[in-house]
């Protein structure tokens, strides 16, 4: 292990030397406030952990050094970072002029600091006015700039500042694919853009604090329970200060009326912040029994507070970005985050102009739990950023080059640095085998794992988790970014809660089982679960014959008979999640007994189990084998033997297959008369044997108005896994407000 670690370090050293970095890369990280430090700290820890490659200089300025905002520079010292320089750059005031003067003061003080440090590169985060002063100073002093979180879209003046810093920066680390596309559209060099994810997610997704209750009680009181309190964080909107103050006042009124324990954080240093503090004091928030007003909460503790809150409300980017990692409900007020990509946990109140509107939003959101969202990161941002830093060639000309239209295609120039393939973990829980696969957005099965399905619940769940963890680790090696986990299983499933209500007899001890929670908790990924028939229909809709078809039905012909119904492009689940149990359509009142306990179901005639039953009867009567067939003594009679016998001229076997095909055809006719789809897709190992029989029955038995329906055999090699992947790839939330 030591040998390979040393070998890896040697290779990295060779890469740095090749890029002209014969000395350690001197990196200056400048932090201005509590928010940007939460994003920069993981990078700083990563740089500090590799002293053979980097020298770290920390510059602190802005609101970090203001007592009214908690003197948050202390948390940097508590993290054991040496602060090289402290710059007091905030000009106190309550209007826009104070922000301009603060930028000017920073521009006056920064040149002396940068002259002394002489960094190879400066890391600047985000969109604050302090960051604009940093980027301007570094650019004019010919210092390379790495900008974190460029390309994003939001409201207020921050949007313009962010894009201005992008134009000054030489390298870009963005968090989402949309942000990457925006940077390319802004004529930035694609080779200097890294799609890494948000660094704070590295900490969020690894945050495990069993003693979170002590943190909650410390900030909110001894009598508070999880999911029974609110975190409020609202900042002034500098382009419309008057309206934002009014909105904050309405928010506090709504929170007072809602009557839940609430932690209120002081706003950022912006024009209008003092007026917002006055509103808090006017309402008596600091002395109200239901409220706790604080200037600052350490990020480690803040993570636990929002992770276990009943709701977060305000207009902070933290609400639309970081909180999604925990599935905590969020109410986003006003226009400050307009344009941000958000998860399904975020409810937007565009015009928060009445107390009732905000109160109604609280009633809708409070106490809910959403699937965790990883739009802004997967927990591996810092390793990507460090690798990107090591690849920077200091011999390249400092002068930026812009890539004017035509814009480069969205295909990565260097897959290790720029872009990974968006993919899903697909799980197929079969009666015999448990399969897990990494499936790309295009439906390519990149990697597949197969194990025998254990008999007990505990062993089965343990194996699923083990295989998923193994596949998620392998995904990094094959440059796949996992968006979520999709699970296909037999039986009746509640897809809203991710619970298997009742399973088939093939999968024992698998009823009322919550699959979503343990897998989501273990992998920090959103998890979707659905019935295998529904998954097959989703696979056809995304990758197969059903693509672009408004109304179609998929029938699975395998060990059992199942299916899925797509109506007006949407999958039908039914009132009790029992829709599309197509195998249990009764086609004969006195037919053979089905595993469901009824008689005359399609499954009792046409499933693999039914054909195996009839094959055994023929074999016991010595009527199965014909010339050209042979069986070993220990060989188990199966449906395959019946099909082979029919092909070789066994009339009794052929008759059984005809009856099975007729039963399936009658079931399809019933479906046509009920749903009137334009397409019927037969899937599974028996589909090709039944397709002609089904078409014949439709021609004989169906109404003339539905006889034009197209009946085809699926061309998908693995609909179960592809369907499970479709759950993720179709529903991974990319809502844009």
Automatic annotation (TrEMBL):
Alphabetical keyword list: Allosteric enzyme, ATP-binding, Cytoplasm, Hydrolase, Kinase, Metal-binding, Multifunctional enzyme, Nucleotide-binding, Phosphoprotein, Transferase, Zinc
Gene Ontology molecular-function annotations: ATP binding; hydrolase activity, hydrolyzing O-glycosyl compounds; metal ion binding; N-acylmannosamine kinase activity; UDP-N-acetylglucosamine 2-epimerase activity
Residues annotated to bind an N-acyl-D-mannosamine: 492, 504, 532, 581, 584, 603
PANTHER family named in the record: BIFUNCTIONAL UDP-N-ACETYLGLUCOSAMINE 2-EPIMERASE_N-ACETYLMANNOSAMINE KINASE (PTHR18964:SF149), ROK (REPRESSOR, ORF, KINASE) FAMILY (PTHR18964)
Keyword Ubl conjugation annotated: no
Pfam family, one: Epimerase_2
Name of the protein this chain belongs to: Bifunctional UDP-N-acetylglucosamine 2-epimerase/N-acetylmannosamine kinase
Subcellular location: Cytoplasm, Cytosol
Domain UDP-N-acetylglucosamine 2-epimerase, residue spans: 53-390
Flavoprotein in keyword set: no
Main localisation: cytoplasm
SUPFAM superfamilies: Actin-like ATPase domain (SSF53067), UDP-Glycosyltransferase/glycogen phosphorylase (SSF53756)
Gene Ontology cellular component annotations, sorted alphabetically: cytosol
Originating gene: Gne
EC number, UniProt record: 2.7.1.60, 3.2.1.183
Organism: Oceanites oceanicus (Wilson's storm petrel)
A GO BP entry: UDP-N-acetylglucosamine metabolic process
Subunit structure: Homodimer. Homotetramer. Homohexamer. The hexameric form exhibits both enzyme activities, whereas the dimeric form only catalyzes the phosphorylation of N-acyl-D-mannosamine.
Reaction catalyzed: an N-acyl-D-mannosamine + ATP = an N-acyl-D-mannosamine 6-phosphate + ADP + H(+); UDP-N-acetyl-alpha-D-glucosamine + H2O = aldehydo-N-acetyl-D-mannosamine + UDP + H(+)
Record-annotated active site: 532
Binding residues annotated for Zn(2+), in chain numbering: 584, 594, 596, 601
Protein family membership: In the N-terminal section; belongs to the UDP-N-acetylglucosamine 2-epimerase family.
Pathway involvement of the protein, from the record: Amino-sugar metabolism; N-acetylneuraminate biosynthesis
């Amino acid at each position: 292990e030591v040998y390979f670690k040393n070998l890896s370090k040697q290779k990295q050293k060779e890469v740095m030397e090749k890029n002209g970095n014969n000395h350690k890369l001197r990196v200056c990280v400048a932090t201005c406030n509590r928010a940007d430090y939460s994003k920069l700290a993981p990078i700083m820890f990563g740089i500090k952990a590799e002293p053979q490659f980097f020298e770290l200089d920390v510059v602190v300025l802005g609101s970090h050094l203001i007592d009214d905002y908690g003197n948050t520079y202390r948390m940097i010292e508590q993290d054991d970072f040496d602060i090289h320089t402290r710059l007091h750059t905030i000009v106190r005031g309550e209007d826009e002029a104070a922000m301009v003067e603060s930028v000017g003061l920073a521009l006056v003080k920064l040149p002396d600091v940068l002259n002394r440090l002489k960094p190879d590169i400066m890391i600047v985060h985000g969109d604050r006015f302090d960051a604009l002063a940093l980027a301007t100073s570094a650019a004019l002093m010919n210092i390379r700039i790495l900008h974190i979180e460029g390309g994003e879209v939001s409201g207020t003046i921050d949007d313009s500042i962010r894009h201005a810093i992008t134009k000054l920066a030489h390298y870009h680390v963005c968090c989402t694919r949309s942000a990457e596309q925006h940077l390319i559209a802004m004529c930035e060099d694609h080779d200097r853009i890294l799609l890494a994810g948000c660094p704070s997610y590295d900490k969020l997704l690894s945050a495990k604090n069993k003693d979170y209750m002590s943190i909650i009680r410390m900030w909110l009181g001894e009598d508070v329970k999880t999911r029974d309190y609110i975190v409020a964080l609202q900042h002034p909107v500098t382009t419309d200060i008057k309206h934002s103050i009014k909105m904050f006042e309405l928010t506090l009124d709504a929170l007072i009326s809602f009557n839940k324990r609430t932690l209120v954080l002081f706003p950022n240093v912006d024009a209008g912040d003092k007026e917002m503090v006055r509103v808090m004091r006017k309402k008596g928030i600091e002395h109200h029994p239901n409220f706790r007003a604080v200037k600052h909460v350490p990020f480690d503790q803040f993570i636990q507070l929002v992770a276990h809150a009943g709701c977060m409300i305000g207009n902070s980017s933290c609400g639309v970005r970081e909180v999604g990692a925990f599935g905590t409900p969020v109410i986003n007020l006003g226009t400050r985050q307009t344009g941000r990509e958000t998860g399904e946990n975020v409810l937007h109140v565009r015009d928060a102009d009445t107390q009732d509107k905000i109160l109604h939003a609280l009633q809708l959101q409070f106490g809910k739990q959403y699937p965790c969202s990883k739009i802004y990161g997967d927990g591996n941002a810092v390793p990507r950023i460090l690798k990107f830093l090591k690849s920077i060639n200091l011999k390249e000309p400092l002068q930026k080059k812009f890539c004017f239209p035509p814009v480069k295609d969205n295909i990565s120039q260097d897959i290790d640095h720029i872009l990974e393939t968006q993919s899903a973990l697909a799980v197929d829980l079969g009666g015999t085998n448990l399969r897990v696969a990494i499936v790309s957005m295009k439906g390519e099965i990149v990697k597949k794992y197969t194990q025998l399905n254990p008999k007990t619940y505990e062993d089965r769940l343990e194996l699923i988790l083990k295989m998923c963890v193994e596949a998620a680790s392998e995904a990094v090696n094959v440059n796949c970014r996992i968006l979520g986990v999709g699970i296909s299983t037999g039986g009746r499933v509640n897809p809203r809660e991710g619970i298997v209500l009742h399973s088939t007899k093939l999968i024992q001890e698998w009823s009322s089982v919550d699959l979503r929670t343990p897998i989501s908790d273990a992998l920090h990924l959103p998890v979707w679960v659905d019935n295998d028939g529904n998954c097959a229909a989703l696979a056809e809709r995304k990758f197969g014959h059903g693509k672009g078809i408004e109304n179609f039905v998929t029938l699975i012909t395998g060990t059992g008979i199942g299916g899925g119904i797509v109506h007006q492009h949407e999958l039908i689940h039914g009132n009790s999640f029992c829709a599309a149990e197509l195998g249990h359509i009764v086609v004969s009142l006195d037919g053979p007994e089905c595993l469901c306990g009824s008689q005359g179901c399609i499954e009792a005639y046409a499933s693999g189990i039914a054909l195996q039953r009839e094959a055994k009867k023929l074999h016991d009567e010595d009527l199965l084998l014909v010339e050209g067939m042979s069986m070993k003594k220990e060989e188990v009679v199966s449906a395959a033997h019946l099909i082979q016998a029919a092909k070789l001229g066994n009339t009794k076997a052929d008759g059984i297959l005809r009856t099975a095909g007729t039963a399936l055809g009658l079931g399809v006719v019933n479906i046509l008369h009920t749903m009137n789809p334009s397409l019927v897709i037969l899937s599974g190992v028996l589909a090709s044997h039944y397709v002609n029989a089904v078409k014949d029955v439709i021609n004989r038995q169906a109404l003339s108005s539905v006889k034009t329906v197209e009946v085809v055999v699926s061309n998908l090699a693995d609909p179960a896994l592809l369907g499970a992947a479709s759950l993720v790839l179709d529903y991974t939330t990319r809502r844009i407000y």
